[in-house]
Structures are given as structure tokens and as C-alpha cells.
Design goal:
Blueprint: E1 4-7, E2 14-17, E3 41-42, H1 45-54, E4 59-64, H2 69-84, E5 90-95, H3 100-105, E6 113-118, E7 121-127, H4 132-140
Parallel strand pairs: 3-5, 4-5
Antiparallel strand pairs: 1-2, 4-6, 6-7
Helix pairs in contact: 2-4
The structure holds zinc ion.
């Protein structure tokens, strides 16, 4: 079957979307949530693991925590980057304070750290706060 696999970031259902319908109207077949967003949304480790493993659209995760100053500075930039990259990559956030085991699982040594997943595995990672243009360039490179 043709189409791109995309994990719903709300309920975790794996959807298959025809490439020509991969836009803001693409909805999860189970819960109806939009699959392509123009903002970065918070995910839990189970959904992150599923999306990282299955998605055909690149997934970029910002590992952050509420106590981290640089993370807070980067948050609006990451959000703008999510909008700029709408349809090309999905940008999500994982709170490493709420989910400490996930930080260990993904070997996060310092935050903020961005990890890009592509084709079922980690493609690259980058530590330190970045501005929107730098994030967009990093994701596209
Ligand atoms: Zn769903």
C-alpha cells in the first residue's frame, strides 16, 4: 500500500496517509487529531518511541526540562521552526523532568538536546539552544 506512515502524536495510532494528502487536513483515523501541526507538541516516551521507529516523515525531538534556562529561551524558537517546517518534519518536545527514564534511554547528557529520527533510527543530534533559522537549517541539512 502506498502512502506515508505517521504516528498520531495524541493517541499513538499508526496511520498511513497518501502522499498527496500529507498536509494540515490529514487526520488520525482513530482519534481524529491532526497529524501535521504547525507547532511543536509535547509527547510522552511511548508515543515518541513508536513515532521514531515507524514514521516516514522525519521526527525532531527537543529534550528539555522546566528548570533549564536555555531550554526556555529555545522554546519559542523551536515552535517557530515547527511552523516553518510544517509538512517536512514533525517537531515534538519531551519533558525529561517528567520522564527521566527517557533521558537515560536516549542517552541525553545535557539539555536542550535535539535528536532527529529518520527512517526508523536516529539520524543526528545537537546540544545547546539554537535560534529558529539554525534549527530549520539543521533539520534540513
Ligand atoms: Zn490519534
Amino acid at each position: 500500500m502506498a502512502g506515508k506512515k505517521l504516528t498520531c502524536l495524541e493517541c499513538g495510532q499508526l496511520n498511513r496517509i497518501p502522499e498527496d494528502r500529507l498536509g494540515p487536513d490529514a487526520k488520525c483515523g482513530t482519534c481524529g487529531a491532526a497529524l501535521i501541526r504547525s507547532k511543536a507538541i509535547e509527547v510522552d516516551p511511548a508515543i515518541l518511541a513508536k513515532a521514531a521507529r515507524n514514521d516516514d516523515v522525519p521526527l525532531v525531538v527537543d529534550f528539555w526540562a522546566p528548570w533549564c534556562g536555555p531550554c526556555k529561551m529555545m522554546a519559542p524558537e523551536f515552535s517557530k521552526a515547527a511552523s516553518a517546517l510544517e509538512g517536512q518534519a514533525r517537531l515534538v518536545k519531551l519533558n525529561t523532568e517528567d520522564h527521566q527514564a527517557a533521558g537515560t534511554k536516549y542517552n541525553i547528557r545535557g539539555i536542550p538536546t535535539m535528536v532527529a529520527f529518520r527512517g526508523g533510527k536516529e539520524a543526528k543530534r545537537q546540544s545547546g539552544a539554537m535560534r529558529e533559522a539554525q534549527i530549520v537549517a539543521w533539520v534540513k541539512s
